Amino acid sequence: MDIFKRTLLIIAVFLLPTHLVQAGQSVAFYYNQIDSVRELINYDRVVVTPGLITDKQIETLQKAETQVFAYLSVGEYDGEVLPNNLKGLSPLINPNWSSHVMDLSAITWREYLTQQARALTARGFDGIFLDTLDSYTLFAKSSKQVNKQQSALVSILEALNALPTSPLLILNRGFEVFDQLSFKPYALVAESMYNSYDPLSDSYQLVPESDRRWLTSKLENVKQAGVEAIVIDYLPASDRDAQKRAAKRLISEGYTPYISDGLLYEFGVSTIEPIAKRVLGFYDSQFGRMVTSKCHRMMSMPIEYYGYVPECLDIRTTNFSNIDISRYAGFFFWLEETSYQQVPNLQAWVNSLIGKRPILFLNALPTNQAILAKLGIADKGEISGNITQQQGQNWTQQFYPASFSQFEKHTLWQPTQIGVSSEITFSNENGQTTTTLFKAPWGGAVLSPFPVMALANDTETWILDPFRLINEIFPLPVIPAADATTESGLRILTSHVDGDGFPSKAWFPGKPYTAEVLNDYIFKQYDIPQTVSVIEGEVGKRGLYPEQSDKMEAIAREIFRLPNVEIASHTFSHPFFWDFSANIQTKQYGDNLPIPNYTVDYYNEILGSINYINKELAPTNKRAELILWSGRADPTEEILAIAEQANVLNVNGGNTYVVRGNSNFTQVSPTIAWYPSAVQVYAPVINENLYTNLWTEHHDGYSRAVETFEILGSPRRLKSISIYYHMYSGAYPASLNGLKKVYNWAIEQQSTPLFLSEYAQRASALYETGVAKTLEGQWQIASTGVASIRLPNALGYPNGNEFAGWNSGPDGRFMILKQPKTHFTTTETPDRALRLESANGKLVSWEISNNVVDWSVSTHMPLKMVVSGAKNCKRINGPRIAINNREKGQVELTSPEKGVLTGTIQCQLL
Asked: Is the pLDDT of residue 452 over 80?
């Protein structure tokens, strides 16, 4: 395109009416509490109550290219009591909302609004939604009063538009002054075109035809002026189909729709429909914290794998009346029978839930007989004796057999309704039969002694397949799954070292420090990203060995200067317990390292140790990137927040451990422990301690981590390849050899090596990934940090040009994202389009035009990139690359260079 034509096109775009330029953009008005933005990121624009959103949540939304507008009431003050400086400025109370209607001509009120607007834009809001513009009509009755208020309103709006930060302004109605404004607002909103809400009666009603005609005429004037017209209509999310029909009708009439509940507390339908991706589970805190509950330890991982966000609430503190079920895809309960008995509100709520969303009961059922009757399950007495399995062997084969004690009596459960089936049954010698696995229209139940059995040494094991349990008994809709195991189509590879044992001497000639051994044989020899930490209390002068500190600090500085090494802290004194409120019966190692005259201070453990490393050990071009939790790695939300507020990433905990002969999923943790204020990123796989039985045998045992990586890579890719060990792995020739075997295996894999901080950034954003569908049926993914989406095999193949490509994996197609919001469709067969299949680095950009690809990849390794859908490619510009034409339309491009590489290639299509 020549310059003249391109200039004309740009001018034409700028001259288009605003409502046409923004056509198709979604919007949401949400005035409820915000614990997470995982739903709000689905929308292009969101209007929120500023006091209910944090600055970090605003930043997270903006990462997903969602504009954030703050609600500001222009005509009313919505607090219960007017501040002293505003007293006497309110002629009356609005009875619908119990708010103070304000006199717009009052200088103090206008100054208050300007001050509020300045504060909002200073927080980072993209714009302001100005509500209650016509509230003055509640008291201004004479034409003189009306003119005075309208003139004041125009002055207020002009002043807000003239703020130095130039906030985008959305008006709620204000038709009477619209033509008097010297500027065009970003958009104008009108409520209740077809459906209205009455807050006094809490009811929904159809809008009279006369009101609709009046509103339509007003909005036509807005559209003719080139301003986007947004219409909010009111229908509850319990009737999602009606919401979608209402949205489509408004779109056909030229409006941007938002259809939600009367209080705007639910996530409604705009040009997109948000997909409910939360799954809510319940635990009883009388048996421990959330992170130690079976809700979190057992169920979160498989639920997370299917692309959903697991949440675990304590039945002792939950206000069940506040739960919005429309945002959840399903509910599960892993409780004891006594827990149901002790929390009556729980049973009443369960009764109201049946039939509205899929439900899964684990271990026990509610005790209320009315609920059991509604579920179609009956307690038929007790069963005892020699109880053996009669039905459902296909569920239990290859697992430990379920065990019923012959010395106890067990509840005899049986179905009582057609449609409620017995999947696993057991009988005794008297012919009595009980069901332990039910499948029902409302979901199902798996009952004691299922689904998990306690073994010796405080271990547990699933005695059926948890993935099959979810698929068949707890049928969550199949959706694209946010994925933290993969980057650019390849499995992520990381390596990180806890600093424990730095002062230890190794069993090598000259008795070097273990850190010296690892530096010589691992850090320098394996040129992959490696994250290395130290414990200040071991290497620093404030610690246990001040006389050795100079020597150890010099070693640490040498390690940290390596270009393939990232720096981390493993705390100051290595606390073994991060929740001192818990009553720990046995403290094998004490509370922390016995540093003289020191009492654990969490700020010093995290921030103090990082400051020490940055000041004393880090080269000028590096800083400590994260904190690696020590000991039991069980920080509370409050402790996590210390690192969060300092913008320090964190990793460790989770304790995932599986090997051949012990591939039990109870020992596979979820990716993270999520809290509203902070996120704990678990290490994908546990360190060498379990592989060596706490160093009591098999000093080369960590070589079996290869088995772990293989088991967790196929048939489901559950974890990345995560090499994780301590400094003391450099103590023995055997332990070093075991470590080298793991590294040698890892570097032979097709992978994308990342620093641990890069993995942590992706993992911490895993739950803040949105899934939606456009009203035309396209999928939409909104990402705040995750760059990979696993499309399950059941959904077929991705199709579209808003993502870079995809690579086949063991359990789906791993899509490579290139932008925060991605739209795509699915097909039963793959198309032949040119695409990126894989790269061993992070994709920076990927744009295709006429078979020419402009690409950029940030890689820690010599570049290896595979393009599919081409029979040949040639380099146009960029780094030196070798081109190898593979079979099946694949072209491999390699370069000896690494870093941020940018180039252009031209390809011949198949």
From this structure: yes
